[in-house]
Amino acid sequence: MKIKIYYERCNLCKECINKCPFGAIEIKENRIVINDNCTLCGLCIKICPQKAIEKEKEEIKEIDLSEYKGIWFFVETKNGEIASVSYEMLTASKKLKKKLNEEICGICFGKNLKDKVNGLIKRGANKIYLIEDDIFCEFKEEIYAKSLAYLIEKYKPNIVLAAATMLGRSFIPSVAVKVKTGLTADCTDIDIDEKAGLLIQTRPTFGGNLMAKIICERHRPQMATIRPKIFDPANEEENINGEIIEEKINFKIDDKINICGKEKIENIVDLQEAEIIVSGGRGLKEGKNFEIIQELANLLGGAVGASRAAVDSGWIEYPHQVGQTGKTVKPKIYIACGISGAIQHLAGMQTSDYIIAINKDPDAPIFKVANLGVVGDLFEVLPILIKKIKEQGGK
Ligand SMILES: Cc1cc2nc3c(=O)[nH]c(=O)nc-3n(C[C@H](O)[C@H](O)[C@H](O)COP(=O)(O)OP(=O)(O)OC[C@H]3O[C@@H](n4cnc5c(N)ncnc54)[C@H](O)[C@@H]3O)c2cc1C
Predict the structure, then answer these.
(1) pLDDT at position 241, please?
(2) pLDDT per residue as tens digits for the range 8-60
(3) In Å, what is the CA distance from 140 to each residue of 143, 259, 354?
(4) pLDDT tens-digit profile of 77-92?
């Protein structure tokens, strides 16, 4: 959508200039001009006394859907290595391939990655489109978005998947805008409607009260970001062949972001990467009792999780919430302290490798998923556990 000015109607009354909240309208060479500050809020259209400003609707081009083929997934890297979440996206792509029978292609940007992307081919990717350039050594949204949009326009994939990580969440929406398609963010499942051949994208909505199934009928590619830890990482397969296609940036990089300095963010909550999570719930009674959860997590080199009841009580911030409306986690060890095990909490942690539950109610549902259950008061059990770990030389 664009803003169109009908100069023959405009009498330069300046009403729009005075009222625009973004300072996006100015006069140049005796004409009203909209500058880059415009957010398309439409206020100027409503208030112009001469009706000289209108929205110009862009024509939606009908596209030939049959031209779009292939299941793509974005390959994230971390410190120069393929991030584990990329293998999860490969598993998601393989699930779709079973019903769609289109080739799986990974898209990777970075430096010195040729050997490393081979691991994706061994696990079932048919092709990897690789752009190696110094420009990708630092994540810049605009550059990543432009590069992926360029490849999409060149090769026309049917489906593009990416992980709903900080990186995926930040640049994938811009890609969808650039290639003029829809995007379902933060999916908890994906599948193929075999009759229509469409991607079914499932995600919680209305605060997790409904699971919406979303399709993208008329635009391509069909794009979705998927929560980490929903799919297991893909395993190596036998007799697998694939190819790496090296691409180059042959378009102008017009980077509007200039990084002036960097500061390390301490205490970032990376629950989805943590191998051990110690979680607290309403059984903690009050916020300051999260200190004991934090102490145990520190001793084990793990992260702190929480139930929604604890988050809603204001005892701990939302990024720690595990469950249907929080994070999906799959650590090696999940220790639930004073958490009843409501279905919405289990939805985010029940695939953890080993679950330990501490709860004073022997009938608490958490014990149904726990590998080890301790029926007892957490304020008695945790100090003993902490003491024992310290005796054995915990951190
Ligand atoms: C749409 C929707 C989405 C939701 N999303 C989420 C979500 O993402 N994550 C989530 O966690 N919940 C979610 N919920 C809320 C969920 O239904 C539960 O209300 C919530 O998980 C309960 O948290 P809790 O287990 O900490 O509290 P409670 O259910 O109150 O359980 C507290 C437990 O602590 C035990 N306890 C008490 N004192 C002690 C003690 N001294 N020692 C040991 N044990 C003790 C009790 O026996 C009890 O089992 C959602 C609900 C809805 C409707």
Answers:
(1) 87
(2) 999 999 999 999 999 999 999 999 999 988 988 999 999 999 999 998 877 76
(3) 6, 9, 37
(4) 988 999 999 999 999 9
Nearest-atom number in ligand 1 for the CA of 280 is 26
Q: How far is the CA of 383 from the centre of ligand 1 (A)?
A: 22
Which CATH number is associated with domain 65-247? 3.40.50.620
- Could you tell me the residue ranges of all domains in the chain? 2-56, 65-247, 271-391
Give the pLDDT confidence score for residue 1 in this predicted structure: 66
Is the C-beta atom of 323 inside 6 A of ligand 1? yes
Domains 65-247 and 271-391 share a fold: yes
- The rounded Å distance from CA 339 to ligand 1 centre is 5
Q: Is the CB of 313 under 6 A from ligand 1?
A: no
Contact 226, 163 (CB under 8 A): yes
Paired tokens of 99? 């019903």
Question: Does the C-beta of 272 come closer than 6 Å to ligand 1?
Answer: no
Answer for the pair 109, 149: CB distance below 8 angstroms, yes or no. Answer: no
The answer as to CATH 3.30.70.20 being correct for domain 2-56 is yes
CB of 246 closer than 6 A to ligand 1? Answer: no
- Any atom of ligand 1 within 6 Å of the Cβ of 229: no
Tell me if residue 159 falls in helix, strand or coil.
strand
Average pLDDT, the chain: 93
Burial class (CB in 10 A: 0-12, 13-18, 19+), 251: exposed
Atom of ligand 1 nearest to the CA of 361: 47
Fold of 271-391: Rossmann fold (3.40.50)
